[in-house]
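Structure ticket #2291
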Amino acid sequence: MYTLYFVPGACSLATQVVLRELGQDVTLIQKQQVADFTAINPAGTVPVVIDGDRTLSEGAAVMIYLLTKHQSPMLPVYDLTARQQAIQDIMFANATMHPAYGRLFFALSAIENQTQRQAFFDSAATAINQLWLVVEKRLESSPFLGGEQVSAADIMLAVYSRWGASFPVSIVIPEKVQFMIDHVIAMPNFQKALQAEQAVPEFA
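Resolution: structure written out below.
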């Protein structure tokens, strides 16, 4: 049994989906329910996963830990080329695409002038669109970054793709990427994860 600290709709959603794909039980705790969350994770970020006496943080590191512990085709063991590609895709999602969307949230909270904020939004959206083109090119020969099956990176990217709707920006999702995203979001475990988040009250 794992415990997952989360924020609704945040990158912790991808962690929950992967746990469910791995057939693992998970207890959800909203970050807002914790009086001093920094006592659990000094950085104050989610996801945080508790596995026995281990406290795991940083989304990519958590993913790799879970996929290594519960051996899964999402992180090949013996095919080193495929394994490296899976890790690279996870890192792209976590360290490249996630921060690109993060700029939108930064502008929303840090820039008061509406004209300047919109200019920042538009610049961030341009960068995000370029990154989705990178993903589109990767999908030229297979429906998912994992080849014929969904990968952890696909799940992460599908979660991030939902964030753009909260901002006054034009984010263009290319055709092959949209197919991948639609498939991932329609997965039973993705839908179960969304429902599970909604069932947890914001405050205890």
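Closing remark: The chain has a mean pLDDT of 97.
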